[in-house]
Design brief:
three-stranded antiparallel sheet, binds calcium ion, binds guanosine-5'-diphosphate, 13 helices, alpha/beta, seven-stranded parallel sheet, 317 residues
């Protein structure tokens, strides 16, 4: 079993490559749920759905999230009643949220519904929400407000300055069934090039997760989401400084610290390899911009080969 810790788009682009290297049934993905929110009475899980739509080949290629060939009839009609529609929910996408919400009301767990949704889209990778409990990433802004992650990022377009990030509800949350086993019993544990703060960071904030990643016998190999000091997309560059981390390929590796056995940086950051070696981190440089699925597959192959090599040398154990 290959296990991947994942946020949304960056992880989905990587997983599209990974499933070209190994049978999808051998891949378990532990997914962030800190971005989840309730809109119009429906439970929306952006990262789980982004990964599902990408792996099903149904993602909108321009936005890189949501469904291709989408319409927004329901959102337009909701505006008639004066509802806020700052969070875009297309008609096709709404069916996913309707199904999920109905099943949760019937007493199904988020893990169960996630498996059903994946199966309905023909996705055979095992997708596990990191927890079935309700958690939410909260953002503290420098004007003293406490916002849900989506209020900060979507409604306010990521404009406020951030002073702190926390996962509300984490203290009461338990890892979903299979999550700790997926981390502890993996052959290789991969950290997707996802947001280190609000995707990987929120996964690690669920009690038991950080400890499992630290203790797993699997080599832990991560891919940098930062290329040449910039994000490919998203707001990690605005959040890392709030945690005292540098916005660079090395900065993210140092932020993960002891958890990592190896770190893949982009060729553009090749100088980070030597810098990190000086700090005891094994780093490699490779093309990591995954606009092309073949590049994603080669990157995934490099992660797997690196993990296999570390395993042979007894690293991680
Ligand atoms: P989100 O939930 O959609 O924000 O997605 P993630 O948490 O997966 O992370 C977005 C992160 O993925 C950002 O920091 C991006 O810089 C990174 N990312 C997206 N696409 C790529 C890519 O092709 N290569 C690399 N190296 N990073 C990427
Ligand atoms: Ca996300």
């Amino acid at each position: 079993m290959i296990t991947v810790l994942a946020g949304g788009v960056g992880a989905a682009r990587f997983l599209r490559g990974l499933v070209r290297c190994v049978p999808p049934e051998e891949v378990t993905v532990v997914v962030n749920v800190g971005d989840d929110l309730e809109r119009h009475g429906l439970r929306v899980c952006p990262d789980l759905d982004t990964i599902t739509y990408w792996l099903a080949g149904l993602v909108d290629p321009d936005r890189q999230w949501g469904r291709a060939d989408e319409r927004h009839t329901v959102a337009e009609e909701l505006r008639r009643f004066g509802h806020d529609t700052w969070f875009t929910l297309g008609d096709r996408d709404l069916a996913t949220h309707l199904h999920r919400t109905m099943r949760l009301h019937q007493g199904a767990t988020l893990s169960e519904v996630t498996a059903e949704v994946a199966a309905a889209f023909g996705v055979t990778v095992r997708l596990l929400p990191v927890t079935d409990d309700e958690v939410a990433t909260r953002i503290t802004t420098d004007d003293g407000r406490d916002l849900h992650f989506q209020e900060y990022w979507v409604r306010e377009r990521g404009e406020p300055n951030v002073t702190a990030v926390r996962l509300a509800g984490a203290d009461r949350a338990r890892p979903a069934p299979g999550v700790l086993e997926a981390v502890l019993d993996a052959e290789a544990l991969l950290l997707a090039p996802s947001n280190p703060v609000v995707s990987i960071g929120t996964i690690l904030a669920v009690p038991g997760l950080r400890d499992a990643v630290a203790r797993t016998a699997a080599p832990v190999v991560g891919v940098s989401p930062i290329i040449s000091g910039s994000v490919v997309r998203g707001m990690a560059d605005r959040l890392l400084p709030a945690l005292g981390a540098e916005v660079s390929a090395s900065g993210v590796a140092e932020h993960y610290g002891e958890l990592l056995d190896a770190w893949i940086v982009d060729d553009a950051d090749a100088e980070a390899v030597e810098h990190l070696a000086g700090r005891g981190v094994t780093a490699l440089a490779a093309p990591t911009l995954m606009d092309d699925p073949l590049v994603a597959a080669e990157l995934a192959r490099l992660c797997l080969d690196t993990a296999a090599d570390l395993r042979r040398r007894g690293v991680g154990a």
